[in-house]
Amino acid sequence: MKKILFMIFAMISLCILVGCVPEEVSNEEIESLSDAELDLAMQKDDQALVGNAKKQIKKSEKKKTIEKVRKAVKSKKFPLVCKMNKEGHLQLIQDDKIVRTLIEQHCSEENSFKRVCVESGYESVLDSKCNNGCDESTGECNPAPVFRLEQCGDPIGGWQDGATYFVDSPIQMEEDDLDEHGTGACFHVKARDVTIDCQGNNIRGIGRGAAFWNNPRNGGVGVAESDLWSMHIVDCDIRNFFAGVQSYRGDDSVENSVLTDNADGVLLVHGGIELNGNFICGNSYADLECAPSPTNAVGVANTLGEVRNCVENFLERGYVACPEE
């Protein structure tokens, strides 16, 4: 028995000597680390200690401090609480005092990372690449360009990946915007991850053609996207088109928009779409129509009427019925 107790005591003593029990980390030590060094300290073993990250830790002059913080994080004894503020920044807080403020999205060598609060500190997880390049001096993704849509036709400079397009006033489609077949589009979108914010303004059709589209094989749509292009439609009022929104092979979303007086409110041709907070009622054929090909519509807080061919699990939780006329 004495031998067993001696062995346990010896193991505990050895563990303390080699660092099995993490030392307390001071605020001064945390503040001494740069944002990049703190990111390395916060990573899980499978993310931080591989490839370039492992080399960065070895080469850093703050290697001992980084390892000390890593052990505290791993043992869930990191002294600061992580919270997200209203501006979308992460704050490390102790006793109601902000010790460190970090931007949520950051980058290095064109790789984009997102900081996410966890139980002990935060993690910096690999996200998509920065659409508009990385500012290596600040570690921030270059901001997406902002453009205006004022009348039918391509925006000045053409469509750009990751850009935001604002509609500042109502837009009316004209006969001249249609092609010789009576279809065509007011805006033929040809880019990925595009946000169109109508700011509550109207986009009006003439019963044919499109407000926005990028798939010339399908006529008369309000908003469309093809195999490689994705769109995020925000706060739009779209009426009098063949379809208010058409989603085709993309990661699309429609938020806080009104789609009415079209043939189809939303037409999902292929792939997935997310619908949140929309009023989609009073469309003559269907408020939401899914094509026979693999489709997936998800969302919450929608007011929605006639649905054709879409999966039932979306209907159970994604909408409330349109008001009776």
Structural features, described:
The chain is built from 7 helices and 26 strands. With about 325 residues, the chain is α/β, with parallel strands linked by helices. The chain folds into 2 domains: about 120 residues, no CATH class; about 180 residues, Pectate Lyase C-like (3 Solenoid). Strands 9, 10, 13, 16, 18, 20, 22, 23 and 25 form a 9-stranded parallel sheet that branches. It has a 7-stranded parallel sheet with strand order 11-14-17-19-21-24-26.
Looking at the overall shape, the CATH architecture of the largest domain is 3 Solenoid
Structural class: alpha/beta
Question: If you compute it from the alpha carbons, what radius of gyration comes out, rounded to the nearest whole angstrom?
Answer: 26 Å
End-to-end Cα distance, whole Å, is 85 Å
Helical segment tally? 7
Total beta strand runs: 26
The dominant shape is elongated
Number of domain units: 2
Report the biggest beta sheet as strand number plus sense, adding barrel if it closes.
9 strands, parallel
Output the CATH class name of the largest domain.
Mainly Beta
Here the CATH topology of the largest domain equals Pectate Lyase C-like
Beta-strand content bin:
35-45%
Low-confidence stretches: 216-227
Helix content: 10-25%
Mean pLDDT: 79
Keywords:
26 strands; single chain; 19% helix; 9-stranded parallel sheet; 325 residues; alpha/beta; Pectate Lyase C-like; 7-stranded parallel sheet
